[in-house]
Write a structure and sequence with these properties.
Oligomer: single chain
CATH topology: OB fold (Dihydrolipoamide Acetyltransferase, E2P)
Strand order of the largest sheet: 1-2-3-5-4
Largest sheet: 5 strands, mixed, barrel
Distance between the termini: 38 Å
Radius of gyration: 17 Å
Structural class: alpha+beta
Number of strands: 5
CATH class: Mainly Beta
Shape: flat
Amino acid sequence: MEEKTQAKNQKQEKEIIKRKLDGIVIGDKMNKTIIVAVSRVKIHPKYKKRYKVSRKYKVHDPKDKFKVNDKVSIVACRPLSKDKRWRVIYK
């Protein structure tokens, strides 16, 4: 019986953090919202050249404690508004 509950707890822990990204805060002028730029390196399929691609996400910051140029980790969550589907977990 305990094995089932342990397996269930491990499965729930894996489901909690489905998508986790690291980025840099580039905007904090909105109330309880920050804009985070997430950069990643892609490789061109034919020429094998590496290039950087970045994407901006609107992230929920309930206490307004993150400022521009802070490095943060974000996770996906339920939709909080029209554009916000991410929340900050830590700096």
